[in-house]
Structures are given as structure tokens and as C-alpha cells.
Automatic annotation (TrEMBL):
The chain crosses the membrane at residues 9-28, 40-58, 111-129. InterPro entries: Gustatory_rcpt. This is Gustatory receptor 9. One of its GO terms (molecular function) is sweet taste receptor activity. One of its GO terms (cellular component) is plasma membrane. The keyword Cell cycle does not apply. It comes from Propsilocerus akamusi.
Amino acid sequence: MTNSLMQELIICACFSDGYFILIQMLNITTSLPLVINKIYFWYSFCFLIFKTSTMFLMSSGICEESKKPLDVIRSIPTQGWYSETERMFNQLKDDKNAFSGMDFFFVNRKLLFGLCGSLVTYELVLLQFD
């Protein structure tokens, strides 16, 4: 499948996972009556975090792997470059080789860490108001 076929799927998956994580984080402070409810809540929350981070890390691997040929091209002295080598170098350096969510965002590790920072900030604000 190409990126154009998967854009709707990527944006739906990212937004639904983000929404459910926020809902779960909102419910952290509520007290649960039974031990089994607490176990289920923490299991589902940890599973959701694991699933989302795994999805982002596996998808961002495409962006990371596309940068590896740049190291090989950089090891070649510029005197030995042909026009095709220079064109490939510029294309690998400048193009975004990553999945995108309908061109709103590109799935890479920077996005994952930005989302984690935002979620931690959101949780700290919620804990202050509780």
C-alpha cells in the first residue's frame, strides 16, 4: 500500500489513540470500587500506551531507514560524484520519506516525543486541578 492509500487510516488511528489516551488520563484520578476494575483500567491504559508508541516507532522507522543511504553517499568524495549521485543526495536530503496523516503531520520520532511531552503536560495540569 502506498502512502496515499493509507493517509485516512493513519490520521484515524493517531486521533483515536490520542483521544482514548486523553480519556484514560482523565480517569486516572477517579477511584474505582473493586480491585479487578483497577487491574483492568491499568492493563488497558498500559496496553494503549504500548500499542500507540509501537505504532509510531515502527512507522517512524521508514523515515530513519531512508536516511541511511545518505551516509554512504557522504563517504564518496564529491569529485567522484556524477549528476545522478548529486540528484539522489539532494532528493534523500530534502524529501520527506515518511508516512503522513493527510499531509497534516509526518510520522517520525520527533512527533512521538512531542506527543509524549504534550500528554505529560496535560496530565500535570489535570493533577493540579484535582
